């Protein structure tokens, strides 16, 4: 029998599609599709048929097969095409092939501009995966044309297994959507068009909108005290901040919604680096590729977007948390207080102090210490003195290397200085000190 599977990709409007399909199950049946029921959260966000994806990810193919078997039987009894949706299936090609072997499988997906996808992945890492990195640091780690999560390579793997006719991928871009809505665009892929499509119930508000910049920054700060091993608090915070963001987004016009700003040089390198991937996707896989798709729309060079006070919105988002989940906020304040008491302010990341400021938790500011004389300046002074010998040059070079964290190199240099001046007490002390520091460093590395 025929099976249609929507696999995402992640952060390409899947929640909106799933909410739409769930609300129109009876209408879908009229046009030949059986869409199994699934749950949504308090903000109407869901993972679609996440139970299937979770079973596959956990390696429980027996449970996954039972789910699939039940859905197939139900669809067959009604003489309908089975339609399922889950981003968790995005990279699970072999499992999908095994579970639906013998059936006529059609794969539906959307592909987002890689630069926008990277920024969206950063948001998701903070929202759901306890990420703490600022965007610039995240891009430095992930921004590579070889990133299979965003460059489209996954779709070519689907094509290899199921064939080019069975894999349909469209650009995730409002200018490419039918009637500017992804829900209508998805119906178009299902073959439901014109007056038939307009008979479906369409939610006017957006589902699972991106966090506002202030909400995203607040969640990043809170991730310094949220515990990944006790995710309940994080789920509560996410639910509250999603509600805050949805309301804020609904009040803003499209022109008022600030794009994400990225360092101009970094953005230019990203755009150029992903050009080959975009060209290959356009020429071999994508349907209905518009000109807008070639440039990121929601990401702009820093300094070109509208100015807005992110910090003011951080305080607004925190006020919303206090009103919505006061008990959780109190627990997080207690955890933050304990963290502040465990270390001096100078030993804590700046983000922790920023969070304390937002939450109104007292803390002592780092003391303003006088800058120590530069090791390099001291080395230069010593080397330029009229009495400096080869051992002195090597000693000062070792000091500079040690200050830069290059302990192994410092040890090698100071050993050479000690060979030249075996009774030099200053050189001996430095040599022993570097050896001890190197030993501690090795011990810490093995424990980590």
TrEMBL record:
* Keywords, sorted A to Z: TPR repeat
TPR repeat windows:
391-424
Query: Is this entry keyworded Metal-binding?
Result: no
What InterPro entries does its record include?
Answer: P-loop_NTPase, TPR_rpt
Protein name stated in the entry = Sulfotransferase family protein
Give the source species.
Answer: Marinobacter xiaoshiensis
